[in-house]
Design goal:
four-stranded antiparallel sheet; Immunoglobulin-like; 11% helix; five-stranded mixed sheet
Length: 522
């Protein structure tokens, strides 16, 4: 009987040991689930997600409270975390508690499902337990930004060499399945495109230009505008431009877009003409007609055309500059300037006129050659002595010399006199070849009332020349006349002087006599 009881007790103890240990070894803590975000607000992760909350749900399936639970994760590429361990003070029986970690996904990783090892440690009734578990972490959505179009302005704007401040529109599209956030686009400048800023009166060429866009939803296309200048020596063609696209806190891609320079304005002098078939020294108000045309393929605004004549030409127009508001391609514009030729210009010769056209930041210059035809040119030397008041029929002789390079034919002379002189003021000299001289004689009368002094007159010469039909040339040459007192005037002056001298002597004699008489009486 004793042996039987002993066997029963032994069997009972063995049962309790075996089955009791199995109950104690069975985990009372389990992982009941995991999600990006939370059960209430689930999120999705994509390559480039930064510090996105990831919740692991811990459930106490036992009947005793679990204390001091530690949840540790062991992320590997493409997952990473800021902190790897979370502590839960206690977990009541039947309750579920989240352990939240903040995970990042490598920007350039692929979508897929990644493994996340987890270790859980806890205490129940003073006994420590732990277990390992592997979670599946989905990276299922993504943002993907690409340049889908590049155009100048609204699309009708043509870019051309030397253009400044042109708007370049880049259309950026999110072809992914999730939002792209913290988006920025950077344009890298390289010739023929550039941009400058001014700092402390110094022009600085910038290396790049960045625009911040922010959030771009899936499927959305956002226009991003940049401002560019084009070097003046650029040629028409298509140029690659690099754009750096950053988004989602670390994703960076580089895309190349082709940007075209379609054409340029080119304003030139198409031709010019003179109102006179031939011009000569002394001509005035000669019309110089310029034909200005835009030979490019882009309309130009604000074209300025300036004229700069060189001696012996001068400008008689009110202004030397015209401003053309809009100059479309292929439509010439005529501008008229008025020129004078100095009377003393040597001839024949070729005079020059500089035409300067400015538009944008371009300058076009052209020198026009203006032929000045040969013309006779005269000098006059006075061959007479002075004139006197009251002179009559006095011959005044001048030596006229042709110092020009052309024969003057049918030369006529007229003397324009001051009002105190008169006489025969016309004469005919005939033909005067170059370097030849002719005597020019006038018969003059001098008014007896003419005050002595120097008077101004003018000899006007007119003539014809071969090769200039219908043109009567004219040259004005100033001359001087010196009128001296006549004989009667000189006599009156002498008599007056003598008379005044006699009266003075008589006065002195009278005064002396008075003084003598006064002394005698004393």
């Amino acid at each position: 009987m004793m042996n039987t009881k002993y066997l029963v007790v032994t069997a009972l103890l063995a049962y309790l040991f075996v089955f009791g240990s199995k109950v104690a070894a069975a985990p009372t803590i389990s992982i009941s689930g995991s999600t990006w975000g939370s059960l209430q607000v689930p999120l999705s992760a994509e390559p480039g997600s930064q510090l996105l909350p990831f919740s692991i749900y811990i459930t106490n399936i036992g009947k005793q409270t679990a204390y001091n639970a530690y949840v540790t994760i062991y992320p590997s590429y493409p997952l990473s975390s800021q902190y790897n361990t979370e502590n839960i003070s206690f977990i009541l029986p039947g309750s579920t508690v989240p352990a939240t970690f903040y995970l990042s996904v490598a920007p350039n990783s692929s979508t897929g499902v990644y493994s996340l090892p987890v270790k859980i440690e806890y205490e129940i009734s003073g006994y420590k337990s732990s277990f390992d578990y592997t979670l599946s972490v989905p990276v299922t959505t993504f943002a993907s930004l690409h340049i889908v179009n590049v155009q100048w302005g609204s699309g009708s704007l043509l870019a051309y060499p030397s253009a400044k401040g042109l708007p370049l529109i880049v259309e950026l599209k999110n072809v992914g399945t999730n939002n792209a956030y913290n988006t920025s686009v950077t344009l890298i400048f390289r010739p023929p495109f550039y941009y400058t800023i001014n700092e402390n009166n110094t022009t600085i060429y910038v290396a790049n230009e960045t625009n911040y866009v922010g959030l771009i939803p899936p499927g959305a296309t956002i226009p991003v505008q940049f401002t560019l200048n084009i070097f003046s020596n650029a040629t028409i063609g298509t140029y690659p431009v690099n754009f750096i696209i950053n988004y989602n806190g670390g994703i960076q891609t580089v895309e190349t877009a082709n940007v075209s320079i379609f054409g340029s304005p080119q304003v030139i002098v198409q031709g010019y003409a003179l109102s006179n078939s031939r011009i000569f020294p002394g001509d005035s108000n000669i019309q110089l007609i310029l034909s200005v045309v835009n030979s490019g393929n882009v309309t130009e605004n604000q074209v300025n055309v300036s004229l700069f004549p060189f001696s012996p030409l001068s400008l008689s127009s009110a202004s030397n500059s015209y401003t053309i508001g809009i100059l479309p391609p292929g439509q010439p514009v005529q501008l008229t300037y008025l020129l004078n030729v100095y009377d003393n210009a040597s001839s024949p010769m070729t005079a020059s006129v500089l035409v300067r056209i400015t538009y944008g930041n371009l300058i076009y210059e052209k020198v026009l050659q203006i032929p000045v035809a040969a013309r006779a040119n005269f000098t006059v030397n006075y061959k007479n002595d002075s004139l006197f008041q009251g002179d009559s029929n006095i011959h005044v002789v001048y030596m006229v010399k042709n110092v020009g390079n052309e024969t003057a034919r049918d030369v006529q002379a007229q003397l324009i006199l001051p009002s105190t002189l008169s006489g025969n003021v016309y004469n005919y000299l005939g033909d005067i070849p170059p370097s030849s001289t002719a005597l020019l004689t006038f018969s003059l009368d001098v008014s007896s009332d003419a005050p002595p002094g120097t008077y101004q007159g003018t000899i006007v010469l007119t003539w014809d020349q071969n090769g200039a039909p219908g043109v009567r040339f004219l040259q004005r040459i100033p001359v001087k006349f010196e009128v001296k007192p006549g004989f009667l005037t000189q006599l009156e002056s002498a008599v007056s002087t003598t008379l005044y001298s006699g009266i003075g002597i008589l006065v002195i004699i009278v005064l002396v006599a008075v003084v003598v008489l006064v002394r005698k009486r004393r």
